[in-house]
Amino acid sequence: MKRHFSLFLLAIGFDLYWLLVVMFRERGQLLWLALAILACILLPSAYRLYALLLAVAGGGLDVLWGLSGLIHFQGAAPLPLWLMALWLMFAAVWTRLTYSTTLPGWVLALIATCGGPVAYLAGAQLGAMTFVQPVPVVMGAMAAGWLALMLAFHILMGKRQ
C-alpha cells in the first residue's frame, strides 16, 4: 500500500509541476529546469539514460509537430526552455513510474497515449501554445506520436509484459 501511495504522490507532484510550468512558463524557467535536473539526478543511475532519451525524443516530437504546422509555441525557439524542462521532468517521473509499478508496459503506453494529448489541449487553453490545425487533427497526430514514443520507451526499458 505504501508503494501505491508514493506513486500517487509522484503523480500529484508532477501534475502540480506541470500546472506551474504551463501557467508561468518563461517567468520561472530556470527554476523549472533546476527542478527537472534534480529529479533526473535523483533517479537511480541505471535509469538516468532512459529518462534523458525519453526527454530528447519527446522534445523532438514537439519540434516535429511545430515544424509540420500542427502547433506553435510563442517565441523564436522551436522548443522553449520551459518545455525542455517539462519534458525532462516528465521523463524522470515516467521512468520512475515505469520501474516502480507492476502495470504492464502496454497499459502505461495507453495511459500516456491518452494523457499526453489531453495535456497539450489543456496547455493550449492556458495559452502555452496554439493549435494551428483543427483540434481533431492535432490530437490524432499527437496520440499517434505519444503511442510510438511510449511503446519504444517501454520496449527499450524492457517493460514488455
Automatic annotation (TrEMBL):
Keywords: Membrane, Transmembrane, Transmembrane helix. Signal peptide: none annotated. The chain crosses the membrane at residues 7-24, 30-47, 79-99, 106-131, 137-157. This is DUF2878 domain-containing protein.
